[in-house]
Specification:
Serine Threonine Protein Phosphatase 5, Tetratricopeptide repeat; 0% strand; 251 residues; mainly alpha; 2 domains
């Protein structure tokens, strides 16, 4: 039976049990139960684990060293779901204390399994929104990595910050505008579209794109912006027609 097959009362009891087991496991160093939860096939069980780890890290300063050591131990596990849970836990911690987890997060960027790498993207998104300064500094340091998969993860990972503060992420995207990887280029275009539709964002993006010299990438990004405005019509500050008219005026 999955997490959401349970009624509300049963879910609350299960969450409390998982949080208690996580607390006990970290205190005693006996993490078998944590491993079992972290490897559970149910996404929401795993989510409860990494949220519990983050909650404990914030509330129990005396346990922080043990928590970080446990996460390093979890990352050595052969089960990709456990490593994925660890990567999300890093993001929970990184929302308030990025410096303590960036080395582990960078290691997870190179994981052999896409689920773990995707978890890193998710963690970077959350960290960028809640704790942007160290997260964007990390992104700037890694964004020119020689592995295109890593560059793509960084580009995608800064998206959420860009939705409210496009001026923070556009300079980083500019650094990779001439990337030779289609994977990276497609992600840059996707991110520009996703950060374009909220109030005040399009103007900042267009002003920045006018300074780029990869004109083909800019052309594709502008087309993506218009398409996003069409797809997100209910949520966009401008209609697709208004966005297109503004782009034509500036370009």
């Amino acid at each position: 039976m999955g997490f959401y097959d349970l009624d509300k009362e049963a879910r609350t009891k299960l969450v409390n049990k998982i949080e208690g087991d996580v607390f006990d496991g970290i205190k005693t160093g006996k993490i078998n139960r944590i491993n079992n939860y972290a490897a559970d096939k149910d996404t929401y069980i795993r989510k409860t684990v990494y949220q519990a780890i983050g909650k404990l890290y914030r509330s129990e300063k005396s346990l922080r060293i043990k928590i970080l050591a446990m996460l390093e131990q979890l990352y050595e596990n052969d089960d990709a779901k456990i490593r994925q849970t660890m990567a999300y836990a890093l993001g929970e911690i990184g929302k308030s204390d990025a410096d303590s987890i960036l080395d582990m997060l960078e290691k997870a960027l190179h994981d052999k399994h896409h689920k773990v790498r995707n978890a890193v993207i998710g963690s970077l998104k959350q960290m960028g929104e809640k704790n942007p300064k160290p997260t964007l500094a990390f992104a700037e340091r890694v964004i020119n990595h020689n592995d295109p998969k890593v560059r793509r993860e960084i580009v995608h990972g800064i998206e959420l910050r860009g939705r409210t503060h496009p001026q923070d992420v556009l300079p980083l995207l500019k650094k990779v505008q001439h990337d030779k990887s289609k994977l990276v280029n497609d992600t840059i275009i996707h991110v520009i579209g996703q950060i374009s539709y909220k109030k005040g964002c399009l103007e900042k993006i267009v002003a920045e794109l006018r300074t780029w010299d990869n004109h083909e990438l800019v052309r594709k990004a502008l087309a993506e912006i218009i398409e996003v405005h069409e797809s997100y019509a209910k949520f966009s500050a401008l209609t697709a027609t208004e966005a297109e008219d503004y782009i034509r005026e500036k370009f």
